[in-house]
Amino acid sequence: MIRIAITGPSGSGKGYVCSLLEKRGIVSLDCDAVVHRLYASNDLAVRLSKELGTNVCHPGGGVDRGVLAPIVFGNEEMMKRVQRIVYPLVRARCLAFLEEQEQAGAKAAAVDAPQLFEAGFEGDYRLILCVSAPKEERLSRIMKRDGISKEDALLRMSKQMSVEEYEKRCHAVIENGGGNDPERALERVLRDHGVC
Question: What is the pTM of this model?
Answer without folding.
Answer: 0.91
